[in-house]
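We now fix the convention by which a protein and its fold are recorded. These numbers are not coordinates but entries in a learned vocabulary of local backbone shapes. A record is reproduced here so that you can trace the correspondence yourselves:
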Amino acid sequence: MSTAIWFDLDGTLLRFPDYDDVIARTCDAVGIDAAAAFGDAYNDAFFERLEALDSAPYRRAAETALAAVDADADPEAFVTALRETEYDAMPAPAPVCETLAALAGADGYRVGVCTNGVGDWQREKLAHAGLSTHVDATVVSYDVGAHKPDPAPFERAEAALAADRRVMIGDNEEADVAGARDRGWEAVHAEGPESVPDAVASVR
């Protein structure tokens, strides 16, 4: 029997950083003084645009936040600096790397990442963390036009990796666990990267 084990990315394979600190360091890099006010405006605008599948959520959120604090900075420069700062703040813990490497080398198993987010951003983050070499397929919600728990990302995952059995491991009870079970998959809730080894062991 072949088994495809799919993982969420942010909060599951990679630990969420202190995002206020990520924003503050990014603001410092591009010369924005009002980091706290900027961050509040940026986060509100970003998540609204992400949920709506806006074509450029990072840039447009930056534009909104810059206007809110009346800062004279280049939104593209902010997004570039944010990308670098966020990637560097989200390394893959050693147990995650070891678990995925062992799983990828095991007979009868295939490894996927099924994550909400913007396609190029999530794929580059996965590569920056050194995990992409252990992953057979990556499905990102923006690429299919819907976020988990919508069935569309799970349907794309099914098409990407043929398997007799499918398992989802993720930190979000609704998006990951309930969404996968609604598609008839098995699902395991993992409370962050430190739980990934045990979650994988529970389904092997």
The first strand starts at residue 3 and ends at 7. The longest helix spans residues 35-51. The beta strands are 3-7, 109-115, 137-140, 165-170, 186-189.
